Amino acid sequence: MRTMLLVDMDAFFASVEQRRNPALRGRPIGVIGSDHRTVITTASYEARRYGVKTGMNIYEAKRLCPGLVLVIGDNDRYIHTSEALKDLYLRYTPEVEIYSVDEAFLDITGSCHLFGGPLEVGRRIKEEVKGLFGINATVGIGPNRVVAKLAAELSKPDGLRWIKAEEVEGVLADLPTEMLWGVGRRVSERLRAIGITRCGELGRAPAGLLRARFGIVGERLKALGQGREPEARDRCGEGVRSIGHSTTFPRDLCSPAEMEGWILRLSEMVGSRARRHGLGGRTVSVVVRYRSFETFSRRKGMGQATNDTHRIFHTAMDILNSAGLKEPVRLLGVVISGIEPVSGQVPIFEEQRRRAALLEAVDGVNRRHGPFTLTWAPCLKRLRKGVIAPAWRPSGVRRSL
After folding, report:
1. Do 151 and 175 fall into the same domain?
2. Does the pLDDT at position 49 exceed 70?
3. Model's pTM, two decimal places?
4. CA distances from 79 to 9, 376, 382, 388 (A)
5. Around Cβ 208, how many Cβ atoms within 10 Å?
6. What pLDDT does 131 receive?
7. Bridge partners (DSSP) listed for residue 103
8. CA-closest candidate to residue 326, choices 285, 299, 288
9. Is the residue at 79 inside a domain?
10. 165: which residues sit within 8 A by CB, 6+ positions away?
């Protein structure tokens, strides 16, 4: 029986800052990207008690919590801690997947007996994280990643829970569908419209009903409702509308030349997600938000569907260079659409084969060791600017649910 363990840091950025500065311990703090920006990246649990949430602007956050202390985040510190945590996990199993900057899945199927069983592994990891880094971790354990993630969510903060295979059905029976990993509010609302509000109901729903309502994604939803892990690398593009990423700059930028490294980084994030699912896009769109919050998008076709980072990048730069920017830019986004499965046929030309092999190698390293372990040189200076998102690694592609 497979045993998966999820280690999820509690309020990671905020906890790291509180450990660094003892004066912040026990106080409500909000981590922000820079003193030029107004969005909360992570709130400590002391601040969350007042209703402060990730993504909230600081004015609303301070209205809810007048004593909120704002702290400018430090990517170097968070990434260094994340890398050190990975070294800790490797003491328990070589099968470690860095899912995001503050989350990692450990396959302990073949090693947990060496440490006294799954719960003992979880207990030891929590104890070592607290002792070495001064922060709390929640550990969820289950027969797959979906159940391990659920176990962690149900026991936060500073929790430890093991949901065994024979317990999954009972645990899911009365849980709201939005508790499932990958089922958000919008999907839950559509499920509610056909009379499904609980995970147990979702798992028992006829596959035909779910397919009629959600297309190919209906089968994935049914699997989640049964506590099963859907196929992670679904190569079918049905139901997928777009794959995109955006970023808010630490400071407003004025020219496409200043934005080039950011566009390359976003193109790599989009390309790697598309490659992971065997998908490509025929059209590239660039989303621009000015300092005044006026937002617009422009798009350009590429002819053949692709997920090649640099084809996406060059098309996006063509769009940006021709956009005629009229004021400083605070946010950029890169999106591919016209999604379809990309053929697995080996390219004819040597240069194309080498290019495909390079992208595959980069993706393999980054899946194993965390996003941007390997990256393109122009991205390097940008990776440490601002504050990386807590969900450092995307879990999939955006689907038309």
Report:
1. no
2. yes
3. 0.68
4. 13, 18, 14, 9
5. 9
6. 93
7. 8, 100
8. 288
9. yes
10. 1, 142, 143
**Is 235 contained in some domain?**
no
How many whole angstroms separate alpha carbon 205 and alpha carbon 74? 46
- Rounded to an integer, the average pLDDT of 142-154 is 94
CA distance 128 to 135: 10
Domain boundary among 201, 225, 249: 225
Cα 143 to Cα 105, 181, 261, distances in angstroms? 12, 15, 41
Give the tokens for residue 65: 């919590």
- What are the backbone angles phi and psi of residue 68, rounded to the nearest 5°? -60, 130
- Which tokens hold the place of 345? 């046929």
Other residues' Cβ atoms within 10 Å of the Cβ of residue 327: 11
Number of H helices, E strands in the chain: 15, 13
Which domain, by its residues, includes 269? Answer: 240-399
Same domain, 205 and 82: no
- Structure token pair of residue 382: 């940008």
At 354 the pLDDT is 77
Residues 129 and 180 grouped into a single domain = no
Conformational region of residue 11, where left means phi above 0, alpha means psi within -120 to 50, and beta covers everything else: left
Question: pLDDT averaged over the chain?
Answer: 83
pLDDT in tens, 325-376: 888 998 899 999 888 887 555 566 667 677 777 777 777 766 666 666 666 6
Place of tokens 């970023």: 247
Q: What's the CATH number where 181 sits?
A: 1.10.150.20
Take residue 381 and report the two structure tokens written for it.
Answer: 């200076």
Q: Could you tell me where the beta strands, DSSP code E, fall in 254-393?
A: 279-290, 295-306, 329-341
What the block records as the tokens of 31 is 């981590």
* 159 and 31 within one domain: yes
Total count of domains within the chain: 3
Is residue 103 among the annotated active site residues?
A: yes
Give 371's contacts (C-beta < 8 A, 6+ positions apart): 269, 272, 392, 393
Question: Are 66 and 16 in a shared domain?
Answer: yes
Give which of 337, 174, 316 is closest to 240, Cα–Cα.
Answer: 337
Q: Tell whether 155 and 29 lie within a shared domain.
A: yes
Domain boundary residue among 178, 199, 225? 225
Q: Which one from 17, 46, 97, 103 is the annotated catalytic residue?
A: 103
CA atoms of 66 and 338, how far apart (whole Å): 46
- Cα end-to-end distance, the chain, whole Å: 32
